[in-house]
Design goal:
Distance between the termini: 40 Å
Shape: globular
Structural class: alpha/beta
Number of domains: 2
CATH superfamily of the largest domain: Alpha/Beta hydrolase fold, catalytic domain
Largest sheet: 8 strands, mixed
Order of helices and strands: HEEEHEHHHEHEHHEEHHHHHHEHEH
Number of helices: 16
Strand order of the largest sheet: 1-2-4-3-5-6-9-10
Oligomer: single chain
Length: about 525
């Protein structure tokens, strides 16, 4: 696999679950060779240029909200990177790189490089989800940096503000709408079927597509996967944080840390931050945010940020590899190393509007309260769920503390209004009986092994692999082993020889010294 240059730095700067910069997507299906262009009959100016490949681009007008013509339409843009070989394409590589809200067209060159072998005889289809990239942004006035670095009450207020700004248009931001957009592009191009490759949030989107358009699906690959009926209190993620710390310590050569000690240090650090949060200014996009670093922010750092790019450049320092030492020093009174990790992660913040992220998460994702309940009742239901969960299920964290970490979970959407918003995405999908490959990184606490196995269990014909020494998502590892397995699966419907998965190098870990 060809990766981005400066891979470790770029991995640290990827924003959240699903924003997997430099990954690829591969999928089989037939597209016609005829060029698809914009309404003027020529390639739009934004159409990417990819060496040694013809690229056809276009924009399709779609209802913003099905059945509500008064709300207007949205332009959904796509790019088709054509295969290199002289014969007709054997299939199509169709991808969603995550988010919600991550763009695909802008990464055409990177995806093509990652798929170099497969694109000898397969086309690559990239669709920017509605409201992102080239697909007509509909902003709500909340930036990425503002949202991520705010306190939990500030995040809840930002969600409510976003919903108010969108008004009835908020109904247009759903996974089902994005899935139907993809199928409309498929129909425009004349492809009888698609194979689906989802990364992170794409593993949520692609099964929705498969359930709504089952006859159009040939194969499915899900990487960094989670099921639609995931635990709304994120207990598998909380437990996976401790497991990842133990694994990186146990596998470090020479032994750099003790995994049990690292987990104890994590619990101590969480407890101290619960009582006395740190103020850690972070600079992003030319602005400085006086971030209040709480138990919830610690949870976010460990389960979300530390999972991104783990294993991408295993010999180089990474956030996950530096955490045991930073936690050890914090417990011993030195807050400097942990502060530095927080500042470094903070530099990835941007001024990107978060409407596509917030609206899809708050419209679709499973919550610990009833969507139709008024706000006071929602709070009662949420607190009751936390109290009923106990503390043992959250690893080194308290339930409340950990659930203040996810920007797409916990109580962050509790003020999302019922009026003018879509119904939540159903969790009981009827899925086609097609070959499915599911991958999880065994250092990934964001979409951990436990959730990957649950996602695979939804399909009759699914193969699941936990990929050692990789995080979110496994394809970012540099040897090409994982992409070789997925490429073989997409060509044959079977994973083939997977022995290389056991030989991926452990991540570098900063030594912990007394």
């Amino acid at each position: 696999m060809t990766t981005f240059t400066n891979g470790a730095r770029r991995a640290r700067q990827a924003r959240r679950a699903g924003l997997v910069v430099g990954t690829m997507a591969l999928l089989l299906s037939a597209l016609p060779s005829a060029s698809a262009t914009d309404t003027a009959g020529s390639a739009p100016r934004w159409c990417p240029t990819v060496a040694e490949h013809r690229v056809d681009c276009g924009t399709l007008r779609r209802p913003l909200v099905a059945g509500e013509p008064a709300l207007g339409t949205v332009g959904v843009s796509y790019a088709v990177v054509r295969h290199r070989g002289p014969a007709a394409a054997r299939g199509t590589v169709a991808v969603n790189p995550g988010g919600p809200g991550e763009v695909a067209i802008g990464k055409a060159a990177e995806f093509t490089a990652a798929l170099e072998g497969l694109l000898e005889d397969h086309d690559l289809l990239l669709v920017d989800p509605r409201g992102t990239g080239r697909s007509e942004r509909i902003p709500c006035g909340v930036t990425d940096a503002e949202y991520r670095f705010g306190t939990r009450p500030q995040q809840r207020d930002a969600v409510a503000r976003c919903a108010d700004a969108l008004g009835p248009r908020a109904q247009g931001y759903t996974t089902a709408a994005t899935a139907d957009d993809l199928d409309a592009v498929r129909a425009r191009l004349g492809a009888p079927q698609l194979s689906l490759y989802g990364l992170s949030y794409g593993t949520y989107l692609m099964p929705v597509y498969a359930s709504r358009h089952p006859e159009r699906v040939r194969t499915i690959v899900l990487s960094g996967a989670y099921p639609h009926d995931f635990d709304p209190l994120a207990r598998p993620a909380a437990q996976a944080v401790s497991l990842a710390l133990r694994r990186v310590c146990e596998r470090s050569v020479p032994r750099a840390c003790d995994g049990d000690a690292a987990v104890r240090d994590l619990a101590t650090t969480a407890g101290r931050l619960r009582e006395r949060p740190l103020t850690v200014p972070v600079s992003a996009g030319g602005k400085t945010y006086p971030q209040l670093f709480t138990e919830g922010k610690l949870a976010n750092l460990l389960y979300e940020a530390a999972s991104r790019g783990a294993g991408m450049a295993p010999a180089e320092p990474s956030l996950l590899g530096n955490l045991p030492r930073a936690l050890d020093r914090f417990v011993k009174g030195d807050t400097g190393p942990l502060r530095e990790l927080v500042r470094e992660e903070g530099s990835s913040g941007s001024a990107e509007d978060q409407a596509p992220y917030i609206a899809v998460v708050c419209n679709d994702y499973r919550k610990a309260w009833a969507a139709d309940a008024p706000l006071p009742v929602r709070w009662q239901q949420y607190r009751k769920a936390l109290a009923g969960a106990g503390q043992g299920g959250f690893g080194a964290f308290t339930g409340r503390g950990f659930n203040e970490g996810p920007t797409d979970g916990g109580d962050v959407c509790i003020s999302w209004p019922r009026a003018n918003t879509a119904r939540p995405q159903p969790t009981d999908l009827r899925l086609p009986d097609v070959p499915v490959l599911v991958l999880s990184g065994d250092l990934d606490a964001n979409t951990p092994d436990a959730n990957g196995r649950l996602a695979a269990a939804k399909f009759r014909d699914a193969a699941f692999f936990s990929v050692p020494n990789t995080g979110h998502v496994p394809e970012l590892e540099p040897t090409g082993c994982v992409t070789g397995v997925t490429s073989h699966f997409l060509r044959t419907g079977t994973p083939g020889d997977t022995s290389c998965l056991g030989g991926l190098a452990p991540v570098a870990v900063a030594p912990v010294r007394d």
